Amino acid sequence: MGKVITCKAAVARGPSQPLVIEEVQVDPPKRTEIRIRILFTSICHTDLAAWKGENESQRAYPRILGHEASGVIESVGEEVTDLKPRDHVIPIFHGECGDCVYCHHPSTNICKNFGVDPMRKEMPSDGKVRFWSKGRGEPIYHFLNTSTFSEYTVIDSSCVVKFDPRLPLKKLSLFSCGVSTGVGAVWFTANVQAGQKVAVFGLGAVGLAVAAGARARGASQIIGVDINPNKFEKGKAMGITDFINPNELQKPVHEVVKKLTGGGADYSFECTGNLQILREAFLSTQMGWGLTVLVGVHAKPDTLPIHPMELFSGQSLKGCIFGGLKGKTQLPSFAAQCLEGAVNLDEFITHELPFERINEAFQLLIDGKSLRCVLKL
Q: Is the backbone of residue 324 left (phi > 0), alpha (psi -120 to 50) or beta?
């Protein structure tokens, strides 16, 4: 406590280059920060996109990626009062400071001070890093407020959520992003009700979490859209009732969805980050009240493929970050509902590997063979 820690981390040193397991030095936490011993971490498509360097403006190397994890607090800064050493916690990339006008507003989970910022590569408190390459004194940049591909990481307390130590840390790691984003989009952003019809575009971990959340809410029809037929069997376990493979169609996807639903889905969820798929999701909803929830991350600065006059039909579009839930105040009760059986979390953990095999875990995701590969540190 209060000392620099030397530990192992998986460092990204260039776009699409294999991550390098190397020794890094981790500074003690500053006033409002905590230092966490990471025990489990996993990989999502946001990590993959950053590793590939798909958005040139977000490139920063060397960098420690990762934002889905769980662990135990090692030490805290002098102004941290709600967390203490040995607490079981998960990091969240979209924080909640509790002080800004947005945190006080009941209709949003945006945070002015600690909201997700893919451009930020240093700690928000002082604009400096807490990671250093051992022996070289080289600064290593942060990622999404978290940087969990390291045995120890430093995070502001606004981006850390405490949990009952009796809960399984491996499953809790899923709530750092994937499950919270997908299920939350259904429960908080859309507020799907029993008997309604849902279409899910993209059946990765987040899309399947959307399906699981819709099933938990009692949706009468859950349509899954994906070009990977291997996702369909997994989708059945998550509650999907109908499947569409766009590569097997002779007509636009939205026409098939409207026929299956008798007019259109009450809600569609775009989970791919593809603009043309976003348009199909929008056109798949019911005239008069259909809502499309934008969940996927669109890395390129392109404009929406929707004509303003199309909004006059009563269909609407809404963006969603971190499932629309406030991390520190709403995540514990939300996770408790899921852990009590509302969502089968075991279905999301398809692989487990030791941390040193992180590059294999990346390849599993690239090949479409995994939903979440949990890495044990």
A: left
Among all chains, which residue has been given the structure tokens 């990671």? 131
- Structure confidence by residue, pLDDT tens digits, 130-146: 999 987 789 999 999 99
Domains contained in the chain, CATH given: 5-176+344-376 (3.90.180.10), 182-321 (3.40.50.720)
Residue 3 tokens read as: 């000392």
Residue 272 CB contacts under 8 Å (≥ 6 apart), including other chains = 201, 202, 204, 207, 296
Within 8 A by CB and 6+ apart from 87, the residues are 72, 73, 162, 165
Radius of gyration in angstroms for the set of CA atoms belonging to the chain, rounded to a whole number = 20
CA angle 229, 233, 239 (to 5 degrees): 120
Query: Of 115, 37, 117, which Cα lies nearest the Cα of 70?
Result: 37
Q: Are 192 and 330 in contact (CB under 8 A)?
A: no
Q: What is the mean pLDDT of residues 88-114?
A: 96
Short-list 132, 135, 114, 111, CA closest to 124? 114
Q: CB count, 10 Å around CB of 257?
A: 25
Cα-based distances in Å from 27 to 7, 24, 69, 93, 134: 11, 10, 20, 20, 12
High-pLDDT (> 90) share of the chain, %: 89
Distance linking the first and last C-alpha atoms of the chain: 20
Q: How far is CA 252 from the centre of its chain?
A: 29
| pLDDT one-digit tens code per residue, 169-183 | 999 999 999 999 999
